[in-house]
Amino acid sequence: MTDLAAVIIPADIVQAIATDEYAQGWLGGAHCDTDNLYVVVSATLSNGVKRTVALPRLGTHRGFEEGNSTDNLLRWFRVSRDFWDTFKPWQKSSRSELSATLGYLLPDGVEYLCSVEPTEKSPKIRAYCLLSKEDDTRVFPLNIMVLYRADPYRRLPPKSVERLSGKKVAIVGVGSGGGELAIQFASAGVGQLVLFDGERLEPPNLIRHQVTRRDLGRRKVSGIRSNLQERDLPTQVTEYFIDVVAWANEFRTALANESPDLIICATDSRESRRFVNYCAVQLGLPLVVAGILDDGRIGEVICCAPRSTACYECIRLELGTALEQPASDNRPQIPYLGGEAQDLQSGTYRFDISVVSGLATRVGLHVLDPDTFAALPTNYLVWGREKTEYEPPFRFEFPLSVNYVSMPKRSDCPVCGVLPRELTGLDIEARATEILTDIDEIPT
């Protein structure tokens, strides 16, 4: 049985060979043997070799990495509209008659080729495998994909895409969770992303991160930007290569200047979450905090509306005073208090991160486009990977459950419980240290 192939060809190459003076020539590119895939990036024409404008997009295709690159990849022929009515696919045709019509002597065995039919609108291109023996040729159609700059959002609700295209989302921390969130928001149609992260991609990150080994050593923010570009997403990306706690003043200044419609905090430390929460409250910006606890068994998503709902510290205070530490069990009965960073660095699976990132994206999209994405019943979501015996809200009767928890705004919260000071002239780094010190001293 013949292994039928597939062909990827850019639209500008199709147009070029349809209008060229020559009636036949060669297509250049790469052939990936393992997948029997042809990736076309050039064509020989009457005036020389034409390279596709899509070369930056196709040049990184795995076909070039795993296959053989050549300028004589596939033959192309320009044919009349009735050509394939005469030489029908799946049927036997006269090899000599087919050769005479093409102006090319078909060899014994297998031959792959592309044909272009000029039409009143756009040219029609087809790809075929020809199997010749004696004077018989059997014609088998191949799968052909024409690469053109399509609208990546054509399957999404147009009105929502239009609204989201004017929105800006700041994501603080673009590790495995933040990187997934960036992809999710861009794929939903968000027009601008502002990414904050001071780290570079290291080998242990690859198992859970969106980017691949091609980005090893690069800044994570840059790797995510490249990832979006490779998906043909039009989202504009602004990168800040900073640690938000170590560069507190710079972060606050950038956040104030960018003035995003939403902040997403996906960092892996309590200190950074607390500081991002503090800045969000002070600047009056909506905040969604996404985190994973207890070795990935539990995920949480917090939605904080500025000065109207509980902030991140309100929720920490509420949980810390409501729950009691256990007398037994190897794992803490309260996975929320202490050790969040350690949990995030340990036994978390990639699907744990993906589930929580998906929930956080949905929560954030309501903030950005409430007409499309309905409000959720509470401002605090807790997801459980497994059944647990923890105290509420961390108790789950069934695996893969979500608890919706209403968290009150606390008057004793050191961040949002009193009217915030004006930021003008304030030493943010010193104030951040003060806030975090005060919070750490609160008994929980």
What would your notes on this structure say?
This protein has 444 residues and is an alpha/beta fold. Helices cover 30% and strands 26% of the residues. The chain folds into 2 domains: 6-147, Cytidine Deaminase, domain 2 (3-Layer(aba) Sandwich), CATH 3.40.140; 158-440, Rossmann fold, CATH 3.40.50. It is built from 14 helices and 18 strands. α7 packs parallel to α8 (220-230) and α7 (176-188) packs across α13 (350-368). The longest helix is centred in the C-terminal third of the chain and has 19 residues, at 350-368.
Summary of the model, kept short:
The protein has 444 residues and is an alpha/beta fold. It has helices at residues 11-19, 55-58, 62-66, 83-86, 95-102, 158-164, 176-188, 220-230, 248-258, 270-283, 312-322, 340-344, 350-368, 428-440; strands spanning 6-10, 24-32, 37-45, 48-51, 68-78, 92-94, 109-117, 124-133, 136-141, 143-147, 168-172, 192-196, 236-240, 262-265, 287-293, 298-304, 380-384, 401-405.
